[in-house]
Amino acid sequence: MADHSLAHRAQHPTTTETVHLPPRTPPTNHGKTLAAWTTTWTVVLGAVVAAVGVALALGWLFWVGAAVIVLGLVLGKVLQVLGHGQGGAATRAREQRRGGH
Hints:
- The protein has helices at 6-11, 34-55, 59-84, 89-98.
- The chain is mainly alpha-helical.
- α2 (34-55) packs antiparallel against α3 (59-84).
């Protein structure tokens, strides 16, 4: 069994180092897509509603918040499939119109 500990690697440096580059240039939008923003804000809204439901001891309000969270996750996935997510056709077209950022 090979010793891959940090101390072993420090004492026995390798002569060559493998560089792993991505197969293509990653998107420049840093995840700022319609699908990501919609998912994030819908889940945040649902969490706030659920938290208010817990704070006020209203079980039905908690479950409404939980349903909004699930709705946000489903909505985000639908938008991703429609091309509004990372690497999607709509996102790439918007990046080209805006000059890559």
